[in-house]
Every structure is written in structure tokens, then in C-alpha cells.
UniProtKB/TrEMBL annotation:
<keyword id="KW-0378">Hydrolase</keyword>
<keyword id="KW-0597">Phosphoprotein</keyword>
<keyword id="KW-0732">Signal</keyword>
<dbReference type="InterPro" id="IPR040170">
    <property type="entry name" value="Cytosol_ACT"/>
</dbReference>
<feature type="domain" description="HotDog ACOT-type">
    <location>
        <begin position="233"/>
        <end position="346"/>
    </location>
</feature>
<protein>
    <recommendedName>
        <fullName>Acyl-coenzyme A thioesterase 11</fullName>
        <ecNumber>3.1.2.2</ecNumber>
    </recommendedName>
</protein>
<feature type="domain" description="HotDog ACOT-type">
    <location>
        <begin position="59"/>
        <end position="171"/>
    </location>
</feature>
<keyword id="KW-0276">Fatty acid metabolism</keyword>
<keyword id="KW-0443">Lipid metabolism</keyword>
<feature type="signal peptide">
    <location>
        <begin position="1"/>
        <end position="16"/>
    </location>
</feature>
<dbReference type="GO" id="GO:0009409">
    <property type="term" value="P:response to cold"/>
</dbReference>
<dbReference type="GO" id="GO:0052689">
    <property type="term" value="F:carboxylic ester hydrolase activity"/>
</dbReference>
<dbReference type="GO" id="GO:0005759">
    <property type="term" value="C:mitochondrial matrix"/>
</dbReference>
<dbReference type="GO" id="GO:0006637">
    <property type="term" value="P:acyl-CoA metabolic process"/>
</dbReference>
<comment type="pathway">
    <text>Lipid metabolism; fatty acid metabolism.</text>
</comment>
<dbReference type="InterPro" id="IPR033120">
    <property type="entry name" value="HOTDOG_ACOT"/>
</dbReference>
<dbReference type="InterPro" id="IPR023393">
    <property type="entry name" value="START-like_dom_sf"/>
</dbReference>
Amino acid sequence: MLSFFWLRCLLKMVKGNIVVPEDILSFCCNGLQGSTSPQCTQDTGEQQEEAAGAMGGHNPTEVQMSQLVLPCHSNQHGELSAGQLLKWIDTAACLSAERHAGCPCVTASMDDIYFEHTISVGQVVNIKAKVNRAFNSSMEVGIQVSYEDLCSGKHCSICKAYATFVAQGPPGTKVKLKPLTPQTEEEKIEHSIAAERRRMRLVHKDTLKDLLTRSTSNAEMETRDGSVVVPAEKTRVESVELVLPPHANHQGNTFGGQIMAWMENVATIAASRLCHAHPTLRAIEMFHFRGPSQVGDRLVLKAIVNNAFKNSMEVGVCTEAYDQEMSVSRRHINSAFMTFVVLDEEGQPRTLPMVVPQPGDGERRYREASARKKIRLDRKYVVSCKQTEVPLSVPWDQSNKVYLSYNNVSALKTLVAKANWVLAREKEKVQIYTLEEDKFLSFRIEMLVHISASQAFSLLSDLRRRHEWDSHYESAELVQQVDEDDAIYHVLSQTLSRENKPQDFVILASRRKPCSRGDPYVVAFRSVTLPTHPASSTYTRGETLCSGFCVWPESEEMSKVAYYNQATPGYLNYVTTNVVGLSSNFCATFEACEKFLLKNKDDLIARLQQL
């Protein structure tokens, strides 16, 4: 009976974003889109049912996995090892991907994972995975991980992850994935933003290379008074693993989750050699699998502490494979960077020893780790924080430009996907909708225009021409053309502030063409700060929340143009007493926008033909 009990315990249960009030009229409000931090809650039965409904239980790609944490899954603290959790995450995500693809799938990459809590033996890990969006042969799978205390009924979120899987067809063939149709509001938001996350992944390597190229020569060795100094070489770990059938997936390739678990193991050993204590994994940076390995391969895993900061350390891990005969050189399978901390008895991070790198590659890894830390902090700060926890105008620099652009577009896409818009006024061809949500009041103004979507997109995305149709704009200077899709403008408004001074704004404009059929053209705006354009006593510097245009093609010569604008509580009283005047102003401005588009579309066509 005892053996049967443990056998039952081991079974997997798999089921299948203050706005200056006057600026609302200038159509230029934007802000941050973020996710809330995980919170522990005491769920009632009704709350759990509502949560299940919010997850979209009818989604055919959704997979639910529940695992009881046993001693064999734990580390020296009696807590679930991060490696085991990574295996379960990868398994659930793969099953979800294969439900949609209808064929074998392999893990291509995993986005940053931040572990907010640990899980103890005897608690239950609940994992939900579902496909957010399918592209050509790859798809994004969203994974939510929480734990459940069976005795107290306590539920707590652990992490949220995004993995990319690639469908595998017969040798020499490519699998064309069918599109995924989102049903719920949450699914529509995730589906829309998935295209933006994919774009961020594709430029991730170039972002790192660009920042490291500029920062490597400027970085200096950190000094800390009274700190113990440890040579980095003393933390080096090398281990070999023989890939056996239990380590392989149903395709005969080494299970990606197993490789991640082995990598976490050697990284933990390297971190322990620095601090002479048991470290806790806090984050894994975005990584990509470079190629497969099979049963019979030998995997060589190498780890070393690249840099130790005051309360955290980065460990670099590399995985290579070779076959029994070593007939070819070792194949690079994967590299990852993991962040560890050492917690004291009160659960607070301890001060760590300093690392002295070896000359050459060691010094390079040391400086690169410092640059990666800045990127991680920027990425987490911009992408993951609540709207109310960060300034609306985030400083712009090379390290966070990709993430500010991502946040700018994803904030607008999230607003677009909201379901409870209410028609507030309709005047001829212009419809005005409102959305009251939490402390925000949002507006949507839309109409059909006889212009192609691409032409409207080109005309509306250039803020230097905004004054031609928006009476609240005086001028817009192009400060910096960041890249093909992003530009920063210094905008002067004719609208006076409460201090009876004209307003100015520093605006990041992000453009996106459709990723696939059904997607709109997007032009998103948000405030940033630049050292070259500080606030001036001549103007009142405005900060904005969330706004922009979406343009859907209705036909080759007809488009639906929609403008979205989100206001903060400081504007609600103004709106309450000026609804009629506000609506009239919106309609008048949007009608002027239509005339601008129709007047300039022929000139635009002529210019394009000359190119």
C-alpha cells in the first residue's frame, strides 16, 4: 500500500498601464503597460471558479498540470528545486504547443523568468499553459505557475513565463501552423501583444551586442570596502551527463526541460563555491536553444560566476554535446545566464564576496555581466512594473530603447483589446466610445475614411504634420530617429496649462505594420525624458499616459481609423462637467483629421512613386 501511495503521488495530472488635463485634447496621451506583482491570497471557491473562467478554460490549447512536491523534488532547504520546476514548465508548455500544432514541437527559446517565491515539500504546483499566438512555424506559449497549500488553502503566484516552440514536420519539410482565434478579453490582449514580444526577441541579441560594444570599454571593476575577494576560477564547474532514454522526449531528442535542469544544477554549484552557502535562483535571462541533442550524446555543462554584485551574482552556463566517437567537434546546445541570491534567516539577501576575473575572457565576462544587469533592470522596470509605481516619463537611453518601444505599443494594444467599450456619442461618421476601468477613463474615436490603411498609417505617424489638422499642436521637432519604427519628438502645444503657460512634451512615437492578416497598423505615443531636452521655465512640461492610432483596412481604398486615449483620475472631474464640450472638440478634431488624410493621400502616392 505504501508503494502504491507514492506511485499515486508521483502521477501528473494533465488537463487537457498626471496627465495634464488640457493635453487630452491634443490626442497625445500615453503610458506604461505592466503586470502586477504576484500576490498571495486566500481564495474562496467562487474566486477560484472566476479565475478559472478568466483563464479561458474552453481554449483547446490550454493544459493544466498539478504536481505534488515530494522530497525527491526538493533541494537542501526542503524547497522545490528550480531545475525540477523548469522541467514541469517545459513539459506543460510543450503539450500545449502540440495540441495546437497536431505534431511534435521543440522548445526554441524561453523569455526571462523571475521567481517570486519558493515552494515547500508537501505543497502543490499548479501550471497552466496555453498558446497565445501562432506565427508561421513557431508559436508563443504563455505559462502561469502558482502554488497551493493543501492545509491552509493558500494560493500564491510563483512566476509567469513565455516560451517559443517550433513545430517539427517530416525531414526536409516545414509545418505551416493554423492561425489561433482568441475568444476572451485576456486571450485577445495576449494574442495582440505576442507579436510585440516576438519582435523584442528577434532584436534581443542585437540589443545586447550594441550595449556591450559601447559599455565594455567604460565599465570599471567594482570595489567594496571590507569584502572578501574570490578568484572567479575557483567557482568554475564542469560536469558531463550521458543522455539516456528517460531524458529524451517522445521525439528521441533530449528533453529541453531536462537540459535546463542540468544547467541549473551546475550553476547552483558554481554560485555555492563563491558564497559557501546555499544560493537561491531568482531569475533566468532570455535564452535560445541552438540545436538538438539525442539519446547517447554526452552533454558537457560548464558554469562560472561571471560577476558578483552587492546582493546578487550572475552565473554563466554553457552546454555542449558530442557523440560517443567524438567524430565531430562539440556542438553548442545552449547558453544561459542565471541570477542567484543568498538569503539570511529573515529572508533578506546577504552581501556577497567580490569576484576577481581572470585576464582576457574572464574580464570580458565580468564587464558583460554588468551590462546585462543594467539591461535586466531596465527591462523589468519598463515591462513588468505597475503603472502607478513608475514615473510616466521614463529616461530614454540605448539600454532600454527596445523595451520602451515594446511597452509603448503593448500598452496601446492592451487598451484596444478591452471588451467593455460603451458608445457615448455618434455624430455623422464619427463614433465616440468610453471605457471606465479602475481609476482610468478611456476614449475611443473612430470613423471610416476613403484612404488605404498604409497611406493613413504613413500620414498619421509623422508628428511633424500634426499641426495641419490638430489645433492644439503648434509644432513638433524630430529630435532623434531611433530606428525605422521609432522616433522621438519635442512637441509644443498651443493649449495653456493651469500656470497659464504653453505646454511641451517629449514623445516617443512607435510605428508597427501588421504582423498578419487582421492586425491593424499601429502608431503609439508615450512620454520619455532626454538630457538634451530638459524641462524649461517657458513651458509646462506635460507627461502623458496612453494614446495612439490603430488603422484597419476595410478594403483597398477604405480604412477604419481609430484613436485611443486614456486619462488618469486628475482628469475625471473635468470630464464629468465638460462631456458635451469634450465630445464636440473630439469630433471637430477628428473631422479635421479626415480632411487632412483625404487632401494629402494623392501627394503621398506621387512621392512614393518617385522613390
